[in-house]
Amino acid sequence: EYRAAFDLFDEDGNNAISKEELGNVMRKLGMNPTDEELRDMIREHDTDGDGQIEFEEFCVLLAQRME
């Protein structure tokens, strides 16, 4: 279930979600995040510091949002 959601966000299939990909999906869901909000979301969950969200980090993000 998390993998299917991750794959929707990972538009280019590189196994990581960029700030741009995160924004695209959020806008499709009717949200309008600012660049700063997107950067903050990435920063908060990017445990390896590469500026993107990998699958393991995405699972943590979803689990926290669903609490």
From TrEMBL:
InterPro entries on file: CALM/Myosin/TropC-like, EF-hand-dom_pair, EF_Hand_1_Ca_BS, EF_hand_dom
Species of origin: Helobdella robusta
Domain EF-hand residues, every copy: 1-32, 33-67
Signal peptide stretch: none
Taxonomic superkingdom: Eukaryota
Protein known as: EF-hand domain-containing protein
A GO cellular component entry from the record: organelle
Lineage: Eukaryota, Metazoa, Spiralia, Lophotrochozoa, Annelida
Keywords, in A-Z order: Calcium, Repeat
Molecular-function GO terms, alphabetical: calcium ion binding
SMART domains from the UniProt entry: EFh (SM00054)
Keyword RNA-binding annotated: no
